[in-house]
Specification:
Helix content of chain A: over 70%
Structural class of chain B: alpha+beta
Number of helices of chain A: 9
Radius of gyration of chain B: 20 Å
Oligomer: heterodimer
Shape of chain A: elongated
Largest sheet of chain B: 7 strands, mixed
Order of helices and strands of chain B: HHHHEEEEEEEEEEEEEE
Largest interface: A-B, 77 and 81 residues
Number of strands of chain B: 14
CATH class of the largest domain in chain A: Mainly Alpha
CATH architecture of the largest domain in chain A: Orthogonal Bundle
Structural class of chain A: mainly alpha
Strand content of chain B: 25-35%
Number of helices of chain B: 4
Strand content of chain A: under 5%
């Protein structure tokens, strides 16, 4: 694991400048604030919620809440802006998930039917169609045959590791290294193929 | 603010996305991600790749005998047909949240599996009954999931021993606890009905408060009386692999 470097910056000069400018009503500083902090916030919420649309909505709401406080000069420690944004986003997510849980508990009808209905969301289908198409193409375009085979068998067919070790004549440790390298090459291809969207 | 070297270490990314970092490490990485869009992009890239592979695997499970991926005909072998996990991501998000939200205040329960076959038994499998341990003024029933049924095999095939769970009166929430010696990796419980095997739901395991155990928490409305195929899976190298399976028979309230 990469250890975080020990260096600790004195503070966050960008956050300090933005806090000061936003307090004076500088709209360009507000734009910069949203552009700067939105990608990380959306990503964090996406990891936590597993729901891209919810992540975007909650990130917007968190930025709005914090922006209002900054306009009012109520951000006491600009250096801790990232922590404040994170805390606000996680509170909003916790509230949303509690509401979802209540909705789920209130629905006394067949819960599996409910899940099937959710899974047939046309927007989800379109998005996941693209994802599947791209992944299939990217794996298929890998130059090293063993990379293609191993990734497909392990991640798509979900064949057990011991079976693959036997078939590819690899020790468990060697398997991990080969898989790691294959994943690295897949990631390079994936990065060039799939544009990142915030 | 903690500084990270770029590109981010693969193990750090893996542990973050599996939610296996300790809270301090997780907070440090998330704050760095908020401040540094490049770190956020690396996390998004890894996340999208994982989602792509999982979605592709799910589609392939739904058509298990379909034409193989181009270039893989020579290596594809007949494989055990698996059920499809549908409605996965959204359901998982809610289930994970439910597990966290509902388990608050539940102390560790020490439960015994009564009846059933012992460890290493081959062949005949008796029905086992999960005994509830009531918590929270009787509205919550905690059950230990059967660890000793994992290795049961008959003629080389994984068997599916029936496990009976009876809901006591007044219980509105159920906690299914993983055994204490369960490896520290992400687990999920996949449930399907025998009459609708093509539809399954998955619940993510979460650490139970004041406990060293992980478990699955769900409202009783989510588990009406009936018979379910239950499968516990663990995450290994980014893929879900089967850990154990059994038939879960849920009976009405006593």
């Amino acid at each position: 694991m990469t250890d975080p470097a020990a260096s600790q910056p004195e503070g966050d000069p960008v956050a300090q400048r933005l806090a000061a400018s936003i307090r004076t009503g500088d709209r360009r500083a507000e734009d910069e604030f949203v552009r700067r902090y939105s990608p990380g916030l959306v990503t964090l919420l996406r990891v936590r919620s597993q729901d891209p649309e919810l992540a975007k909505d909650l990130a917007q709401e968190a930025l709005r809440v914090v922006l209002l406080r900054m306009r009012a000069g109520q951000l006491e420690q600009p250096d801790a802006l990232a922590g404040f944004l994170r805390g606000t986003a996680l509170n909003l997510l916790a509230n949303e998930l509690r509401r979802s849980e209540r909705r789920l508990a209130d629905a006394s009808s067949d819960w599996m039917d409910q899940i099937v209905a959710e899974s047939s969301d046309p927007y989800d289908t379109v998005e996941s169609d693209d994802l599947v198409h791209n992944m299939r193409e990217v794996i298929g375009s890998m130059k090293v045959e063993r990379d293609r085979d191993l990734l497909w068998r392990f991640y798509v067919d979900e064949d057990p590791k011991d079976k693959l070790c036997a078939q590819f004549d690899l020790s468990p440790e060697h398997f991990d290294r080969v898989l790691h390298r294959a994943r690295g090459r897949l990631k390079e291809l994936w990065q060039s193929r799939v544009p990142m969207r915030t | 603010m903690t500084m990270y070297k770029l590109p981010l270490d693969a193990r750090l990314l893996h542990d973050y996305l599996e939610r296996r970092l300790d809270p301090r490490e997780e907070q440090a990485l998330e704050e760095a991600m908020i401040v540094d869009p490049e770190i956020a992009e690396q996390v998004r890239l890894e996340l999208s790749m994982r989602e792509g592979m999982r979605e592709l695997a799910r589609r392939e499970r739904e058509k298990p005998r379909s034409a193989p991926h181009a270039g893989h005909a020579e290596v594809r072998h007949a494989r055990t047909e698996r059920h499809a996990v549908r409605g996965g991501r959204r359901w998982l998000a809610m289930a994970a949240a439910a597990a966290v939200a509902l388990a608050i205040g539940v102390p560790t329960s020490l439960l015994l599996l009564r009846g059933g076959a012992g460890p290493g038994t081959i062949g005949t499998v008796a029905e086992a009954e999960l005994s509830p341990h009531l918590e929270g003024d009787g509205h919550l029933a905690a059950y230990d999931l059967p660890a000793q049924l994992v290795a049961l095999r008959t003629n080389g095939e994984q068997n599916a021993p029936p496990v009976r769970l009876t809901l006591p009166n007044g219980v509105t929430e159920i906690v299914l606890q993983l055994p204490p010696d369960t490896p520290h990796t992400a687990h999920r419980l996949v449930l399907s009905r025998p009459d609708r095997p093509q539809v399954s739901v998955a619940l993510a395991a979460a650490r139970l408060p004041d406990s060293e155990q992980d478990g699955f928490t769900l409202a009783t409305e989510q588990l009406p009386p009936g018979q379910y195929q239950a499968q516990i899976e663990r995450l290994e190298n980014g893929a879900w692999v089967q850990d154990r399976q059994f038939v879960l028979r849920v009976e009405g309230r006593k």
